[in-house]
Amino acid sequence: MSTQTAIRESRVSRTAAMALMLVLAVYFLLPIYFLLVAATKPQGDLASTFGLAFSHFDLAKNLGTLFGRSDGVFGRWALNSVIYAVLGAAVGTLISALCGYALATFTFRGREFLFNVILGGVLVPTTALALPLFLLFSATGIVNTYLAVFLPSIVSPFGVYLARIFTVAAVPREIVESARLDGAGEFRTFFSVAFKLLTPSLVTIFLFQFVGIWNNFFLPMVMLQKESLFPITLGLYEWNGQTARVSLLQESVITGALVSIVPVIIVFVLLQRFWRTGLASGALK
Amino acid sequence: MSTTVTRVRIAGAVVAAAAGLAGLAACSSPAPSGGASAPSCEPAKGTVTLQYWNTVPGMDQVVALWNKKNPNIQVQTKNISNDQYGTIGNALKAGKAPELAQVGYDELPYLRTQDAFVDASACSAAPAAKSKFVPWTWSQTSFGGTGVFAFPQDTGPMALFVRSDIFKEHGLEIPKTWDEYATDAQKLHDADPNLSITFFDPNNAEWFNGLLWQNSATMYAYAGDKWHVTVESDHSKQVAGYWQKLIDAKLVRTDLANGSTPMYAAYQKNQIATYVGAAWGYSMFRDNLPDQAGKWTIVPMPTWGSSAASGDWGGSTVAFMKGNTHLYESVAFNSWLNTDPEALALENKLGGLYPAALAGSALPALSQGVPYYNNEKIFDVFAESSKNIDTSFTWGPTQKTVNLALQDAMAKAAAGGGTLTDALSSAQATALKSMADQAIPAVAGD
């Protein structure tokens, strides 16, 4: 009885919380709403009509222009972004999982030291690494290739950290021990036993990586010069720099920006369920 | 206890890693280029690859056309529109400049003082191209001498964009002189306090330079081994005084930036009746104000006296950059790029370039009526404007600094804290000071 009153909140505070969340939701969604509206307008309406109200609904035409521009280079950029983000996140997640699993399951000299060094890597912003990486890559001759963006994308110290925490939480030692007793090798144990237990957690790591690579701008800007290798972010930036000469590019930049957030939304919606469980299982420990 | 040890170890490892990176960086940083040999025009044996940096939308497609036709001279483009001069400057410092790069007319003298170019006149095709370009553009790329450091690419001959319906509504003729323009400004404003004849963009020194150019207000001259700085002259003071009067009488808006959304909104609301613009501006109105199709006309700039004169606003060249060892191939490509009708047509269509080549005015796209402008042949006006541009106008070696000083003072004048004539004096002082700082010999006056 007494616990009930303690948990129950007053109507006022609940309303206040709801109001605050509503305000925040509007605040966060307004730019997306603007983008949605602007992407449906012809160039001529961008400056001359109110930004948050629909005018001519030209979304289909804008999309046609966007994908038709410069021999369909935008489609190429979109494909590149997908390649960088999906492959990079998949390989990155696998490596992180292997590392994190190893750090959690095996006891060896220097384990904590190694883990701390990797943790230190979390503190170094990827932007700060772009220039040193450029110098390294230009010495090895892989600047201006897919690898120049792909290789740095598969490294994720934060992923390793999460994978270790998740392994400790989700993979009981006893299961690993019994798999070994049954004669499974270490890789077999990982892929057949631990991997399934870790799946929700790995989705979390994958999502982090995917969004990070999808939104990455500075690294491709430093590494790439060939337009055909650009991800969407860099391509839109280049177009935006040319609007002074060709004003119609502005419309394509806006429509392109809208298109570029669609895959991220899809991935989030599809993987949301896994993600929640993943976060929760990590949070328990 | 163990944590302390770990921390020390980590610190050591980080230092070691950093040292490793620094070492690698030192190894890979480019060695200074050796002594440059005198430029020669030997064709290379085998396939040559040229780098060409530019800011033109769709230029990769123009170059693809060339590459298809010329398997032995392959060109790679790089778009540097987001930091044009920063990128070029860094590449020059690193000794890794491309063979060809896009450089604005007003940046040529500065980059020349930085030893950024090679003289392509060793190739006989380079000086021979002179007759293919509008005269004033060639005098810019040769610095008035016999060298050829760049080929002109596009220009921005100026003209007056007029809302003919507004003028008709108020029973006004379209002005032919700046005096008539000022009178009309007053009449329009009297008839409708929300209506201004145009706007004065205080953050656009390039535009103001075009106005000075029209009045033969030469800002620099190079003679007797030194620069003569005349940013502040009778000609320039006439222009500054004129616009100052319009600003003081609040006949022109000073709160709009060229090409900005508020600018288009003001035009959309019929608050501004003219636009003092350049050839490349024709598509700005067509694309951003489609509702006003048929209401615009383009006429020559109002003049100061009775004789026709015009100025240029914007435009670029394609320069032969330092370290270029393939001059023969570079001249061949550069010449095609900027004089071949097929290339010019494509650049105009994709990149909106208004060509500097004389052949440009014969392009179908530039000799037909434009639907947005009542099917008027607006490019005839720009072609005529281009012919009336003073060929002796010279940019200074510290133009960027001077432009910034001019803009600072123009912004103050627009806010009522000074005059445009003051802006000229401060730009003049800045020009002399920055040249003195760089040990470039310069004196004030002719």
UniProtKB/TrEMBL annotation, chain A:
Q: Which UniProt keywords apply?
A: Cell membrane, Membrane, Transmembrane, Transmembrane helix, Transport
> What family is reported?
Belongs to the binding-protein-dependent transport system permease family.
Gene3D superfamilies with a match to the protein in the record: MetI-like (1.10.3720.10)
Q: Which PROSITE patterns match?
A: ABC_TM1 (PS50928)
Q: What is this protein called?
A: Sugar ABC transporter permease
Q: What InterPro entries does the annotation carry? A: MetI-like, MetI-like_sf
Domain (ABC transmembrane type-1) ranges: 78-271
- Could you name the domain of life of the organism this protein comes from? Bacteria
From which organism does this entry originate? Microbispora corallina
Q: Where in the cell is it found?
A: Cell membrane
Q: Where are the transmembrane segments?
A: 12-36, 82-106, 113-137, 149-172, 193-214, 253-271
- Per UniProt, what is one Pfam family of this protein? BPD_transp_1
Asked if Membrane is a keyword of the record, the answer is yes
Q: Topology versus the membrane, per the UniProt entry?
A: Multi-pass membrane protein
CDD domains reported for this sequence = TM_PBP2
Coarse class of the primary localization is membrane
Automatic annotation (TrEMBL), chain B:
Q: Which domain of life is it from?
A: Bacteria
The UniProt keywords, alphabetically, are: Signal
Q: Give the source lineage, highest ranks first.
A: Bacteria, Bacillati, Actinomycetota, Actinomycetes, Streptosporangiales
Against SUPFAM superfamilies, the record matches this protein to: Periplasmic binding protein-like II
**What protein am I looking at?**
Sugar ABC transporter substrate-binding protein
Tell me where the signal peptide lies.
1-33
